Task: structure prediction
Amino acid sequence: MTSDNIYGGLEGGGTKFVCMVGSSPQNILEEVRFPTTIPRETIQQAVNFFKRCADNTRLSAIGVASFGPLDLDKNSPTYGHITTTPKPGWSHTDMISKLHQALGIPIIFEHDVSASAFGEYYWNPQNRQKEPLVYFTIGTGIGAGIILNSRPVHGLLHIEAGHMHIPHDRKADPYSGNCPFHSDCFEGLACGPAMKQRWGQPAENLPEDHPAWNLEATYIALAMSNVIFTLSPKRIVLGGGVMQHEALFSMIRQKVLKLLNNYIQSSDILERIDDFIVPPFLGNRSGVLGAIALARVEIEEKKNN
Amino acid sequence: MTSDNIYGGLEGGGTKFVCMVGSSPQNILEEVRFPTTIPRETIQQAVNFFKRCADNTRLSAIGVASFGPLDLDKNSPTYGHITTTPKPGWSHTDMISKLHQALGIPIIFEHDVSASAFGEYYWNPQNRQKEPLVYFTIGTGIGAGIILNSRPVHGLLHIEAGHMHIPHDRKADPYSGNCPFHSDCFEGLACGPAMKQRWGQPAENLPEDHPAWNLEATYIALAMSNVIFTLSPKRIVLGGGVMQHEALFSMIRQKVLKLLNNYIQSSDILERIDDFIVPPFLGNRSGVLGAIALARVEIEEKKNN
Result:
């Protein structure tokens, strides 16, 4: 039975790698986390983990969800590579060949945030009816993934919705933004490091009644209303470190309603916004469980064709 | 042969209706235009046109592309209706039942801008490789449609990307915007009537060297860079009355490159932006030819299943 197949999932982030083996969120057999150091070392650690697991369990495929930018074009000679990342040592890193050589099973490659979006879509049965589904991670950076027609959306490159330009009232917020490319884009104004730089202390230390949270909710609401106008999603999932501050959710929802100003006449927004902008179903495991989901659908699809 | 089938297309706009019968842009058999007055009268004119055509030619289906907001949910009792439009007399208008009753053939219903996007996608062979494809009409209002997986994207409702919030430098442009819902959203700042109100004369009267065009290009470029970040389209088509001012295209392209600031490392943008942001292949007939294309794919799909 397909549902008994065991898959690997790798979430390769800028600070840590998470590797997992299992069939579903309810059936995780192994899980390890280790820091992201240099490619040779970190990738070898992942290879060792999956090889060890494969000695005990037949793995059908591995999903690799990597920080980007990535080459996702299957016809490109550098498919499966990280391209030009600012992260020292990681530009032009082949993320999949060593795994493939060591294990000889299909490797499915995806952008980490798209994999998180897919994890949320695939493992939460409710979300199968919620396309387009948009997932944002708001933390060290701001990333986004979109699920449509049961798969992550790929265009020219991956989704980079963290870099959209939103109104920035410099009187109310003189902070100039920290994006090295666009200064005060959404990420430049609202990512965790921007909060830290603006207020002189890390977001997690800011008290509940600090004005930081209202400003943060304003920027996130502006970006989410833009996403609603541009894509008409049926659900928005907000994850990442900054969103650990749970009070943000109700502030964002109220501000989104105000920004839309009844223009979008949908009861899903007007009456059920608590169920429209939501935290991740999978907590902080959306990425690695998304990688496993991508491996699973790849194998199931092959079987059905 | 399917390609010889004849279809009807109706583009129902706020100021005029365009009705067409044919099989493709190269084979248009009949075309009429008449002003949008009251629903009973205007819809009857369309019914009369298609009935007359059906006396001479077998019509396989009719695509109806209507101004919105629309009910596009096939399971809804008001499917095929315009919902709550500010246009006097047109709220809650059934756009398809009379046509269906009179002709007894399938009627395919779509939002006018999504139909335009589909027309550009379907009839321009190049665009079949250009998904996601985004189409904007910038004129009396600003509307958008997205094609992905060979079809217009439908979410909760239709795409309303004209209403996204973009930076508005009130020092450089004190005009407060004319959107009744959001004041200075993209449409509120950049639609034709906003240009007229800001500068005291209609856009088409403004000379080539008037600062209006630089400001207009700035707003359009901000919105397009947001669309590029959010959706990573492979092509953006800009149509509508304001875009008749051809000099806007090169100004917008330059400003988009500046806004992206090399963050999107794709040669399609960095080296070939003239081929990335383009005018409509179908001129001002994208909507009605899109309606015909929608009718055609509906019938061809039924045949193949």
